[in-house]
Amino acid sequence: MPAFIRNPQDFWSGAIFIAVGLGTILIGTDYYMGTAGRMGPGYFPTVLGSILALIGVVSVVRSLIKPGEPLEPFAIKNLVLILGATVLFGALVRNAGLVPAIIVLVLCGGFASSKFRFGPYALLALFMAAASVLVFVKALGLPMPVFGPWLGF
Amino acid sequence: MEIFNHLALGFETAFTLSNLLYCLIGVFLGTAIGVLPGLGPVATIAMLLPATFTLPPISSLIMLAGIYYGAQYGGSTTAILVNLPGESSSVVTAIDGYQMARKGHAGKALATAAIGSFVAGTIATLLLALFAPPLAEVALQFGPAEYFSLMVLGLVASVVLASGSLLRAIGMIILGLLLGLVGTDVNSGLPRYTFDVPELADGINFVVVAMGMFGLGEIIRNLEQEENRSLVMTKVKGLMPTKEDFKRIAAPILRGTVLGSALGILPGGGAMLSSFASYSIEKKMAKRPEEFGKGAIEGVAGPESANNAGAQASFIPMLTLGIPSNPVMALMVGAMIIQGIQPGPAVMTEQPALFWGVIASMWIGNLFLVVLNLPLISIWVRMIMVPYHYLFPAILVFCGIGVFSLNNNTFDVYMMAGFGLFGYICAKLAMEPAPMLLGFIIGPMMEEYLRRALLLSRSDPLVFVERPISATMLAVAVLAMLAVLLPSLRAKREEAFVE
Lengths: 153, 499
Fold this sequence. Notes:
The complex is a heterodimer of chains A (153) and B (499).
Chain A: H1 8-28, H2 43-65, H3 76-93, H4 98-110, H5 118-139
Helix pairs in contact in A: 1-2, 3-4, 4-5
Chain B: H1 2-14, H2 17-35, H3 41-52, H4 57-82, H5 91-140, H6 144-160, H7 166-181, E1 183-184, E2 191-192, H8 206-224, H9 243-265, H10 270-285, H11 298-313, H12 315-321, H13 327-338, H14 346-350, H15 352-373, H16 377-384, H17 388-407, H18 410-428, H19 433-456, H20 463-466, H21 468-485, H22 487-498
Antiparallel strand pairs in B: 1-2
Helix pairs in contact in B: 1-15, 2-4, 2-15, 3-4, 3-8, 3-13, 3-17, 4-5, 4-11, 4-13, 4-15, 4-16, 5-9, 5-11, 5-12, 5-15, 6-7, 6-19, 6-21, 7-19, 8-17, 8-18, 8-19, 9-10, 9-11, 10-11, 13-19, 17-18
């Protein structure tokens, strides 16, 4: 963290606002602007994007002047595990089926906990899979394969 | 008396067997998530939304409403019994409620919370029935300029009353407004900001945003503070308050109800602010203020009534104006749109059964809560014991299935993961997700009203200040913003949230 940033929360949130604001304006140049009385699709986003970028600039400038709290560390491992588990669920649910997708989701996501132990979590995974099949597929009739084509079904 | 006809219609609608059942399911689920720490009403409602799309609109709204006010109820149970507020609105209940429990008055504290909530719920239902029709009447006169200004006011008020940096909160609103614009532009048919991804042509589903930010983001955040909870449970006995207790709690309950009803209507207000405000008022008005913090029954009665009244009053702007005042209401607006109902003042006249049915169901739901909760207390107590490290994988499963089942689309699941990442970053940077969700829901409506207002005025931006109602609303918005920026008030606002 460079020393001139006195308020990292302000700085980085400002940076996000500037990036999104400028991105919005830039992409918006492809859309017809129109006039205030006859607004094209580009008008409202461009106005909002400009305001957002402006807020970002104010935030960044303020972060260089007024001191604030330091950033908390990011829990990268848990972030990767939880989001990875979710993405894996999405990748598996249609082709491998609901049961394997849930088992992977519970085991991979559960690994993020400091209290993870394989036995209880495997039981939990099986329980969640069975309960979900009963509730969502059998009772509510959601169109999801229990076991998918990848497993030969 | 028209109001009685309205309420009669409402009770007739709500008293069908299926609607009673959905109301019961709603308050039961609500209490459960209120009891379970680390699972809030926004994430739960988002998870359940896909399941409600097949229900008739009225049943689904009755159930979703039940979850919201049921959660306020459940949150206070854990606050009193184990000093763990299940919801942010019951944080203050934990102060005196837990002390009462430690002195052996757990039953009395729970009963006080239940009675207070019920009285508040009853009065708030009546207020809703009284004030909604005139408000909708006024709103029917609104043109696009008024609506646009109302939305500006609503969004500004929601950040003024929120905690944290004002600048960041406004940024989050605009970010939300922009996200709401992703998808096909209604006027030109042009896809905007879709990056040629076909799944984005219909826009981003609000369930995806809510579950990512409030579901996944919260899980990662909660896992950082995993701790070994060893709960010391107090025995619950002696439920009924004595005659003297009733005398002590009557005034705080009424004051809490009035306060909650007033603050609940304000955007960004709702349950949490009401309970905090009520606690500090009761502390100031108490005959024996030294008892506060050591188990004062007034400190339970006031805030518990206030948070329930606040939760119910926040339905007023949602049902009459179509403007959500907090993230839960934003989800309700989204649910209504998916059901094919355009929220706004016309709902009351075009769908009177739906409107009054939902209102009547709130009173029934509150009755359920009183009747159910005290006898079922042992179930809730056992639920508190569910450790978070077994709970969160289950939440993950529900999020995954819920989002996938929206459109049977894996892209939505990936997008939810993306919003989970963004939600976690926002938490680290102290960027509030709630204003973003409000902006996200309001974004498309706001653009439409701005377009129409300026089309009617032939590009004259003065239309917003020339029309008196619109000008007043904008003036209030500006004043509210200036008020926060004033240093003296700013200090007070920070102080209020620290308390």
